[in-house]
Design brief:
- With 509 residues, this protein is α/β, with parallel strands linked by helices.
- The chain has 15 helices and eleven strands.
- α4 (106-124) packs antiparallel against α14 and α9 packs across α15.
- The termini are far apart.
Length: 509
């Protein structure tokens, strides 16, 4: 009996040793740092008095269960490419994502992360250094944009950069240089329009036009800049048959204002968007096309507003009467308009999926008192007030306390951080389900512009920064800020007046 039990222990111990050796070997082959969501195993000395056979077997069963979960996630990833072309309309909200959020559809998760990374690119590419004469611009040219950010595999190319005038009262959104000689006194780069290449379009099942809007870089003070005042969307010359459809005035002004004396903001962000989307729809008119708009924070509000505008103007309707579906993937966005705006958006068929962190304060504003959470009677009585707001679309609520990687912090900006949202998406499988990273997305990205990861992962906070703050040595060995080839590339297209004329927006030029 003793000999038999001894052989059993030796067999189990050998199994554990082999399993551990294979794990170490796998780590050596990995191209990225591997973070485990399970508690680390602590080596121990086994004896008849300290460990029972049943407890060891139980541990092996737990490990086997975790392994099966990982294999399930892997299998879901392998099926994505074969399925995406067939189900992209469901992914983009054709059925309002019914049955896809709980449990979380692996393909939808993957696409949300992909579009979230395209929104994150607007932060990574933005020059917000006040000691740079290019502060407020994009650090890369359109042709090198995705490659410079390590995103060439996304399979998109930039067709146009977007600019807005900083004359609007949103000082915490716009960034300006402290130097007297600057690239522009009144303009800020606020996003881009991109289109999928041929290979990616075949994989996606359609030609995808993506609009990515930049949000606020780090701080949350921009919330205080909001006038918290609703005004009719038609008051800024955006077509709407219902004068009771209203949106926050600051968002509307940012979207529609222009500066005729500025070479970059001579045309409003609205005019830049509509003319470029029109040009691309004409260019790919014989293909299946989708229009996907994404943004984080204030960029989320601009995404929803521009999606409404594209459909309300009928721009997405092609010559053969096909309508290109318009969808918004929003991250940590504020409320944009009143309940009439929500109803109008639903009527037009604009699909909006809002990804939020339940601990983030931004999605709770504006409209802290009168909003969709109030009783119908209260909302009915308050609907005429200029500060009665309502969220639009479908909400996917995440909770950062469910991630074993993130620490408790009093820094409100951590809960608002976009990289943290993408991390939470990667580990979310449904309500009450265990947090398991589906794609193995590197958690170190969370600390790129925050201090949110637990310290024992040894990832420094705010680690992403330019080498030598962008300073380089010239041929004489002196340190200087290099010139950027941005001015010629950022001009508006030659045919923009023709496009504006066809859209009925040419007055004033």
């Amino acid at each position: 009996m003793a000999a038999s039990l001894s052989k059993t222990f030796l067999s189990i111990n050998r199994h554990l040793h082999d399993h551990h050796a294979r794990s170490i070997s796998g780590l050596g082959r990995s191209k990225r740092m591997e973070f485990a969501t399970r508690s680390p195993r602590i080596p121990r000395v086994m004896s008849k008095t300290s460990e029972s056979l049943s407890s060891i077997i139980h541990e092996l069963q737990l490990e086997r269960r975790a392994k099966l979960e990982e294999e399930y996630v892997e299998a879901g990833t392998q099926q994505q490419e074969t399925r995406l072309a067939d189900v992209w309309r469901e992914i983009h909200g054709q059925d309002d994502w019914v049955g896809m959020l709980d449990p979380m559809d692996p393909l939808l998760r993957s696409e949300l992360i992909r579009y979230g990374e395209m929104a994150q690119a607007t932060y990574d590419a933005f020059d917000f250094d006040p000691f740079s004469k290019y502060c407020g611009s994009c650090r890369f040219t359109r042709r090198e944009f995705f490659e410079a950010l390590g995103m060439a595999q996304h399979g998109y190319h930039i067709s146009r950069y977007l600019f807005a005038t900083s004359n609007i009262n949103l000082p915490n959104f716009f960034k300006k240089s402290r130097w007297p000689k600057v690239w522009s006194k009144n303009a800020n780069w606020i996003g881009y329009v991109a289109v999928s290449d041929d290979e990616t379009s075949r994989r996606l099942g359609r030609r995808d036009i993506t609009i990515a809007w930049r949000g606020t870089v780090t701080r949350l003070e921009w919330i205080a800049d909001l006038m918290d005042y609703l005004k009719p969307i038609s008051s800024n010359k955006i077509p709407c048959p219902d004068s009771t459809v209203k949106v926050e005035s600051g968002f509307l002004d940012l979207y529609t204002d222009k500066d005729m004396d500025c070479r970059y903001c001579k045309f409003s962000a609205r005019e830049q968007i509509l003319t470029e989307v029109k040009r691309l729809l004409e260019l790919y008119r014989d293909e299946e096309i989708s229009i996907t708009i994404t943004g984080h924070s204030l960029g989320s509000a601009l995404a929803i507003l521009s999606a409404y505008d594209i459909v309300e103007t009928g721009l997405n309707v092609l010559n053969d009467c096909r309508a290109a579906p318009v969808s918004v993937f929003s991250f940590s966005g504020p409320r944009v308009g009143n309940v009439r705006f929500k109803e109008r958006l639903n009527l037009l068929g604009v699909k909006v999926l809002r990804v939020v962190n339940v601990h983030d304060i931004v999605p709770k504003s504006p409209g802290l008192v009168f909003n969709e959470n109030a009783s119908p009677m209260v909302m009915k009585l308050a609907e005429g007030l200029p500060w009665c707001y309502c969220h639009v679309g479908v909400e996917l609520a995440l909770d950062h306390t469910h991630s074993p990687f993130l620490k408790q912090t009093g820094d409100l900006s951590c809960a608002h951080n976009l990289e943290a949202h993408l991390h939470l998406l990667d580990g979310y499988h449904g309500k009450g389900k265990r947090f398991v990273l589906a794609s193995g997305r590197d958690p170190a990205l969370v600390n790129k512009a925050s201090d949110f990861l637990k310290d024992h992962y040894l990832v420094p906070p705010y680690w992403r920064q330019d080498e030598n703050k962008g300073m380089v040595r010239n041929k004489d060995g002196r340190w200087m800020q290099p010139e950027r080839p941005i001015l010629d590339e950022h001009h508006h297209p030659d045919d923009i007046h023709h496009q504006l004329k066809q859209l009925g927006l040419a007055s004033g030029y």
